[in-house]
Specification:
The protein is an alpha/beta fold and 296 residues long. Helix content is 36%, strand content 21%. It has an eight-stranded mixed beta sheet with strand order 1-2-4-3-5-6-7-8, with helices on both faces. Helix 3 (95-105) packs across helix 9 (278-294).
Length: 296
């Protein structure tokens, strides 16, 4: 029997049942996902400024949100891609996570409302995060941001988007760091962690297959050489845990600077639960320390 952190057990015991998203109409599923995540934003940390921006792209204006822990000019900037299986989520569902990451890293965080699948499958989301990098480096945020101290971050599906952005952006030399939280990097469903945690621990293997069918992303890892120092974490009770561990080995094998933390007793998506879960707050502190150090 897998150990569950007492605070995680209390959250699970009081949580409403997770609906069968893939069998709901898409608009209803997205609205439900948003409502379920709204509770975690009720204790969003106070920041000096939270500002909405429009990112110009060839396919239209894209919403983004800038989180500033202080009004000091030319702060480093972390471009953040939210999770949600490439199908759900927004800069609103992950408002608390991004605000806390800004506070812990002492850096600006730019959340990106990238286009969602299945209407816009791969590579749309990667193109959108690349466009956000282009816009911020081009001066869209004014003197709030130092365009020479940039990082990428994301959770779950957003971690995969951030990784693919890092290998494809022409701004790779300006990236000082990357932080990838419990990501889904390949359509592989027969790992030991899928076998152990693919039912009964929040995210299921069945739903992950559906997400991948919507996303239709690459089924092999990209060229990982020359990436910035990368921090990864994983909850121990996550069907995607082994994907993170495999990516750590792949990054190290080609000479990248890589750091990994595994958090016992918690499930996929745990960093959004900072209001009630100490391991989530610890994960934000650890990621913030890493990013702060690399962005100096």
């Amino acid at each position: 029997m897998s150990w569950v952190h007492p605070e995680m057990a209390a959250i699970l015991a009081s949580a409403p049942p997770v609906p069968d998203f893939q069998r709901l109409p898409l608009a209803e599923a997205r609205a439900t996902f948003g409502r379920l995540n709204a509770t975690w934003n009720e204790s969003t940390p106070a920041l000096a400024e939270i500002r909405d921006l429009d990112i110009p792209t060839p396919w239209g204006a894209m919403a983004a949100r800038l989180f500033r822990p202080s009004l000091a000019p030319r702060r480093p900037c972390i471009v953040f891609a939210h999770g949600g299986g490439w199908t759900f989520g927004s800069i609103e569902t992950h408002r608390g996570t991004m605000a806390r990451l800004a506070l812990e890293s002492d850096a600006c965080v730019l959340g990106v409302d990238y286009r969602l699948a299945p209407e816009c499958p791969f590579p749309a989301a990667v193109e959108d995060v690349c466009a956000a990098l282009d816009a911020i480096i081009g001066g869209l945020a004014g003197d709030a941001v130092d365009p020479y101290r940039m990082a990428l971050a994301g959770d779950s599906a957003g971690a995969a988007i951030s990784l693919l952005t890092a290998v494809s952006t022409p701004w790779k030399p300006r990236l000082r760091a990357m932080a990838l939280f419990y990501g889904c990097y390949l359509p592989v469903f027969d790992t030991a962690s899928h076998g152990a945690y693919g039912i009964g621990f929040g995210l299921t293997t069945e739903r992950m297959r559906w997400y991948w069918g919507n996303w239709r992303g690459p089924d092999t890892l990209p060229d990982l050489t020359g990436l910035p120092p990368t921090y990864l974490n994983s909850p121990a009770l996550d069907p995607l845990r082994d994907e993170t561990l495999d990516l750590v080995r792949a990054l190290a094998d080609v000479g990248n600077d890589v750091t990994i933390d595994v958090y016992a007793g918690v499930i996929h998506g745990f960093m959004q639960m900072s209001a009630k879960l100490e391991p989530a707050r610890a994960a934000h502190r650890a990621a913030g320390r890493f990013l702060s150090e690399k962005l100096k």
